[in-house]
Design a protein that fits this description.
2 copies of one chain form a homodimer. With 453 residues, the first copy, chain A, is α/β, with parallel strands linked by helices. Chain A has a domain of 247 residues: Rossmann fold (3-Layer(aba) Sandwich), CATH 3.40.50. Helix content of chain A is 40%, strand content 16%. Chain A has a 7-stranded mixed β-sheet with strand order 1-4-5-15-10-11-14, sandwiched between helices. Chain A has a 4-stranded parallel β-sheet with strand order 8-7-6-9, with helices on both faces. A two-stranded antiparallel ribbon of chain A has the order 2-3. The longest helix of chain A is centred in the C-terminal third of the chain and has 20 residues. The relative contact order of chain A is 0.15. Chains A and B meet through α2, α5, α7, α15 and α17 of A and α2, α5, α7, α15 and α17 of B.
Chain lengths: 453, 453
Amino acid sequence: MAEQHKFLMDESKIPEQWTNIAADLPGEPLPPLNPGTGQPLAPEDLAPLFPMALIEQEVSMDPNIEIPEEVREAYRLWRPTPLMRATRLEKALDTPAHIYYKYEGVSPSGSHKPNTAVPQAFYNAKEGVKKLATETGAGQWGSSLAFACEMFGLDCEVFMVGVSYDHKPYRRAMMETWGANVHRSPSDLTEAGRSQAEHTTGSLGIAISEAVEVAAGSEDTKYALGSVLNHVCLHQTVIGDEAIAQLEMAGEYPDVVIGCVGGGSNFAGIAFPLLRKKLKEGLDTRFLAVEPAACPTLTKGVYAYDFGDTVGMTPLMPMYTLGHDFVPPPVHAGGLRYHGDAPILCALVKEGLIDAEAIPQTEAFEAAVTFARAEGIIPAPEPTHAIRAVFNEAEAAKQAGEERVILFNLCGHGHLDLAAYQAFMSGELEDLEFSEAEMERALAALPEAPSVA
Amino acid sequence: MAEQHKFLMDESKIPEQWTNIAADLPGEPLPPLNPGTGQPLAPEDLAPLFPMALIEQEVSMDPNIEIPEEVREAYRLWRPTPLMRATRLEKALDTPAHIYYKYEGVSPSGSHKPNTAVPQAFYNAKEGVKKLATETGAGQWGSSLAFACEMFGLDCEVFMVGVSYDHKPYRRAMMETWGANVHRSPSDLTEAGRSQAEHTTGSLGIAISEAVEVAAGSEDTKYALGSVLNHVCLHQTVIGDEAIAQLEMAGEYPDVVIGCVGGGSNFAGIAFPLLRKKLKEGLDTRFLAVEPAACPTLTKGVYAYDFGDTVGMTPLMPMYTLGHDFVPPPVHAGGLRYHGDAPILCALVKEGLIDAEAIPQTEAFEAAVTFARAEGIIPAPEPTHAIRAVFNEAEAAKQAGEERVILFNLCGHGHLDLAAYQAFMSGELEDLEFSEAEMERALAALPEAPSVA
């Protein structure tokens, strides 16, 4: 047989600790700010929304944080995920590069999101919370949290962006199958929803406001977020930790590590453990964060304090931002349409430890179809962007005549996103322009805050 | 940690041979008949439709048939599939039974179908065929063959039942992503299609006729079938062979083996290797084939020679049948709506080696939702029927106070069938009655043929 294709590990190899990259950063990280006072946020400011265990993780500087046994137990349903060598793709691309991908699509909801949904549900249940409220756009996060809540006996209330609720009934069916209560947002269940009733198609910003209102208004209900925050990125590091062990099985180590970036958590998941290894061992690994050309936060945004949500209810976070009310064009990779990025990831980009690149969606889908024909997996719209970057690296290796090792995170499958492929196959998928003018408008509305320079 | 959940094997453990259960049957199997002459079919009668290697497998009495290296190479993309112990489900059901499932949903198309699509494409390519034509209903088979053809450089032409083409655009997008040319059936590309133009919603029978016409009318095009035939059941036995090795890892052996039955191939895949073991070693294993109450071929059909297709173009096959033009009600498990069953499976049911049971779809989906909440996997509509039977066995074990071991085949995921769950969750899923009168009508049209008694 040819080169080994799959590198599997049994469940005893599920990591016992999460990797907290905050401990590896030079200096103290910039704190989030209370938007009312402009002062650094105190942990107790977050207590109405999150359980204490997660707030502690959010500000922790411990290099490693133990994964509770109950969480590892739940992870066993799908973890460790496979590491694959894309031997058929290498042939199709006629490249000397060795291409590896960590496949997170084997999880219940088909993406990396349950890696954090499960511990979030666990810690909330442990602290006596009865219900989690959240928002969801395309549905990846809502379905992951629905399943995690089911596992730990929590109720789950999901505010789903109206246009997705109408056009993605199958994601809703998935959430309901796992026991969640799904509302079309804007709803008439909250003040925020009622005040935005004229925005009939909804937005992630409105849905966040609704979920936060529900959580803040009830003693035994908390809020859960699927990306951006430190504790979310932390939980995702099981991806990279497993990958390191599996690369050892393969006897190789990557020259470049690639992932797509929306809020930043799947990229953090694959990159942070390998970044720590690079820093500790002086390795020469390159890290490449890939974003959509239509929403190029890291490559065109400014580094500043901004709100995490559209309507301006969250703490101010130091990050690359296009402005909190920047409206990105409706690219198919809904999970990448975010005006900012995880502060911890932004700090690493700022330090020059992580490179960033923007890719137009037609190029991304073209690469994804080649990938699907070679490897059999139809990627979710988000990682198609990472795949195009992988192709570029593979071509560069070919031009250089070098056997470079590429690792990327295939963070989810596209079974519930086939409309995007339908559009691409029928020639109807278009590149959507990034609007400098829209960014200028949105950046003019940045909140007053200390400089981050 | 609790009991191990996943039993994984690396790709070196992909079986090297398929299990040909025909060699284990008492006596010679009844031959298929030429419908024109009533005489046993000669291998060359099939040559316009199938390559010689598959025709030889169709009639082979060799106990084992070697899996070509190129096929094992392709299987590596997703095989060996995991064997799972449903520990969380056992708890949810509060049963002393140990429940194991072989999960075929990890394949590119999300079901067991690529197990035979890949060797079929391989043998055709090896004999110089340029294109495969086939039909598909819900799309599981068409998408599997599309991917397999892509792997071996064949063109693939799929006639998709009109109503599915209209309502399942995502399955079509999947086939097109993998390079297939998909036509709505009835089409105006074939005589058969044009003659049935008034049946605008189409039927599997018409789609078969169109694909067969395309194959028969071209020197370098052949036809491919996704179930029923001996060589198809043969290819699926990798499922059971792997399961035996994985059960050994678990240190257990099943008391009962369960699978759903449409044409019979996924059931054959899990059951035949364990059935051989039972026959050889005198084990006490029970085998249970589960069909939908709305199309109860094995439990209510007659054992007779009948056509394999609706319109009466195929050879006559000895099988349990409801009559070849029996119209089953539109249950969501489209893959189980078949008037007959694989002759080899029927012979084993006739011999009393395999039991059969019929399950209504509401009971099946109710069980599937419990399964999905416990194990995280949302099953395809077809295996929901097997899952209900598993629940019944688990309850029987509880009543008996016995630690029975149950093995079933979870032959696919339901990501592209969530409309069925949507119907169930909203209370709109109904049980559809089996019509004795419709069966009587269809049985009156059985072709003239020798008795099989």
